[in-house]
Amino acid sequence: MEVRRRQLARRWYRTPKRVWPYSGHVAFWRVFSAAFAIWVGSASSIYAQPSTSSTHARIDSLLESLSREQKVGQLLIVGIPPGPDQFLVSERLIKDYHVGGIILFEHNVEGMRDPTVPIESRHVTEAIVEMTTRLQWQAAQSSSSLPLLIAVDQEQGSAVVLEKGVTLFPSAMGLAATNNPELVRQAGRVVGEELRALGIGMNLAPVLDINRGEARDFIRDRSFGAGPNWVATYGAAFALGMQDEGLLVCAKHYPGHGQTARDPHQGLPVLRSTEQEIYNSILPFRHLATHGVDAVMTAHIAFPRLDLENKKIPFSLSRRAITQHLRQTLGFDGVVISDDVIGMRAAQEAVGNDPSRAVVKSVLAGNDLTILSGVGGSYSVGPMQIDFTIDDLQHCITDLVDNLSEEQLNASLRRVLRLKSKIYPNLVAADAIPNRQAALATVRRSDHLEIAEHVANRSISIIDDSLHLFDGNSSPLERLDTSDDVLLAVPVFSKDDLTPLLMRHFRVTTVELSYNPKKPFDAEAAFDALVDSIESDSPRLLIFGVTNRDHVDLLDRINRYLSDRERAIDTIVISFRVPYLFDERHLEKMTILSAYSNLKVSNEAVARVLLGEASISSHQLPVSLPYRPFSDLLSIAFPNDIESGPTPPSPPIVNPSPSPAPNPNPRTALPLVGIVVFSVTLIGAIVAASILQRQSAIIRLLMFLAVIVFGTLAFGLISPDQFERLYTSILQVVQPGGAAPDISGAE
Fold first, then answer.
1. pLDDT at position 35, please?
2. Rounded to a whole number, what is the distance in angstroms from the first to the last CA of the chain?
3. Of 221, 451, 422, 424, which is closest to residue 335 (Cα–Cα)?
């Protein structure tokens, strides 16, 4: 009996029955090995990512191990002076004073670039990567090895720190002028992907201030528009786009500059807003706060209604305002960042022009992070002359170590570390060092430039077309002959871009309009140059660009001169900043366009529109004009469904429950994706095994390697953003026709 059993076993081993294709140990071990390879490839990359619990444990450990001096230093974001010694200053700030972040300015980037090399995007990109690499390397060598939070102001339009080496878009108002939130989100993704590739962790944007549509409003085109719903919709689109690519964002300036004409850089604005005005002002912030904005920046504006006991103290330095209004009323539990307390006179005036006192008061007021625009030198930041030494910083840290409560210190530091862990889960500076080659391959990529071009084309708006130059399918310049003369009178930053594009088709004479806020505009010289060109060349068309009131006054003077001539000249006016510089007297004599930016991408879009190479859409302007009121008809529903309807009613300010912090590791939050990809791969391996089991060993080996590669790629190289999009796509298939999740935040 035993012999018979052994014979049967030996026969089964040698000649397996093919009842199903996986009989026999060879096929079994083939499939098992493939499945094991998939498991190893996937599990190794999944578990290489720190879990949320391990991140929390790391934060708890840091709160226990860091000294009070180290903790206080982590609550400061500092700027470093320009020049060859900037890294000596940064090294001392990071290693000796444990600062938590660095804010970059244009002078820092210029200090990295070789002045003998022509300015090209690649050289600027390399300079930025070298700067962020050296800063994070200094942090890696510090006692805590915590990563730096490297931040920039990259709002778009003219409000950018990085003017070269990255893809740029029109201003926030220009983004909103596209009337397309999804397109704005794409722009945000481009900004987010490029800044992260450069080693920058946070963009101090978007601006959620509401524009009043007045020429003296200092926010101007940095605002998305005139209505709270409008600003909430497009501000959320831009913010979500950046967050899609792992960039931290900061909504500013809470509770809003919209009702003031005074620039906090020049002095302290005092707003006596009504409850309704305050509600409208904070609505965009509430919308973003309830849906995962990373940080909120407080404004250097006094709101007596919000702090009756300290009527001359800006919101940013008022503990009552921050704790009771921002934390409790808005329900925001994320990171609160102060606006710059060193380079803005509004903060200085409130504390007797004592920068050190402003720093200390900002931290004590409840700001988790305080921005100091310059430490370690004497130089200009905007209109302010900075003279804040490292010794001054030492006095601030000592004062805070002595006076800041342990409870507040740990609470703020926990929020800051939680913020950093969103982009650096291990909280180790070595992980934050960017990849130079990846950055060069990412920044100003062709698809990014195409998106910027499309956004710029869509942003061009018709303010008025009294001359009917854009009626029908033809453009103004299509009506001209190539022998006709065109007079181009625009500021220098637009002249260099527009002139060569127009000269391909027409004879162009240019008159440069100076634009320097620090110098008076020479209107007489500009007027004489324009008259000389008109008399000598007899142009058929005048293209006139404006950026401020001085240019508009010159335009009025030229119009009076042209009205006395026998031969009329059609005039197209282009506003390169805001569309509300004009009034009714301009409407009957010219066609007016708005480009919302003087960047190259907007200048080229203007040329395409004038030449008929891009169409101009008729849609709502983002701001109110005296002769064209703004209607805030958007309900807050982003990203896909934007419905028209009455503006939501304004209920009293309530305390919405804060939303949970987003998972810093989206990959672990999507187990369904892992199951689906693993299952599909395993089924494919089994099918392949059944098909290839009679093939040669080489083919079986190639199949085996393909399974390993696919499994590793599926779990190791798919970015968190791609996982999130895949997950969304799966849900849309599983739940067809289901309602989109409500992210409106509107009551």
1. 52
2. 83
3. 422
For 138, half-sphere exposure in the C-beta direction (CA atoms, 13 angstrom radius) is 25
Band (pLDDT 50/70/90 cuts) for residue 110 is: confident
- Cα gap 99→80, rounded to integer Å: 12
Contact 270, 312 (CB under 8 A): yes
In terms of Cβ atoms closer than 10 Å to its own Cβ (0-12, 13-18, 19+), residue 476 is: buried
Give 575-592 as a DSSP string.
ESS-STT--GGGTTT-EE
User: Is 613:464 a contact under the CB 8 Å cutoff?
Assistant: no
Percent of the chain with pLDDT over 70: 71
The C-alpha atoms of residue 102 and residue 93 are separated, in whole angstroms, by 10
Q: List the catalytic residues.
A: 265, 339
Average of per-residue pLDDT across 410-415: 97
658 exposure class (CB count in 10 Å sphere: 0-12, 13-18, 19+): middle
Q: What is the pLDDT of residues 23-76, one digit of tens each?
A: 444 554 555 555 555 444 444 444 445 567 788 899 999 999 999 999 999 999
d(CA 173, CA 241): 16
149-152 and 202-203 beta bridge pairing: parallel
pLDDT of the residue at 111: 66
Mean pLDDT value of segment 684-712: 62
Beta carbons within 10 angstroms of residue 435's beta carbon? 13
Per-residue model confidence (pLDDT) at position 548: 87
Q: Could you read off the pLDDT of 552-596 as tens digits, one per residue?
A: 999 999 988 988 887 778 899 999 988 888 877 766 778 999 999
Query: What pTM was computed for the model?
Result: 0.79
Report cis status (omega within 30 of 0) of the bond before 314.
Answer: no
Q: So what's the pLDDT on residue 254? A: 93
Long-range CB contact pairs, 351-355, < 8 A, 24+: 351/317, 355/388, 355/392
Q: Mean pLDDT across the stretch 456-476? A: 85
Looking at residue 391, the DSSP 8-state letter turns out to be: H
Per-residue confidence (pLDDT) for residue 3, from 0 to 100 = 54
pLDDT at 2 over 80: no
For residue 510, the one-letter residue type is: T
For residue 501, what are its two tokens?
């594009």
Instruction: Give DSSP secondary structure letters for 423-482.
Output: H-TT--GGGGPPPHHHHHHHTT-HHHHHHHHHHHHHH-EEEEETT-TTSTT--GGGGS-T
User: For residues 283 and 635, is the Cβ–Cβ distance under 8 A?
Assistant: no
How open is the CA angle 182-183-189, to the nearest 5 degrees?
Answer: 90
Contacts of 465 (CB under 8 A, 6+ apart): 471, 591, 592
- Tokens found for residue 273: 């807003």
Nearest residue to 54 via CA among 428, 575, 327: 428
DSSP per position, 476-515 = GGGGS-TTSEEEEEEEHHHHHHHHHHHHTTSEEEEEEEP-
pLDDT at 475: 76
Neighbours of 692 (CB within 10 A): 15
Kindly give, in sequence order, each residue whose CB lies less than 8 Å from that of residue 677, ignoring residues fewer than 6 positions away: 42, 714, 715
Q: Are 614 and 608 in contact (CB under 8 A)?
A: yes
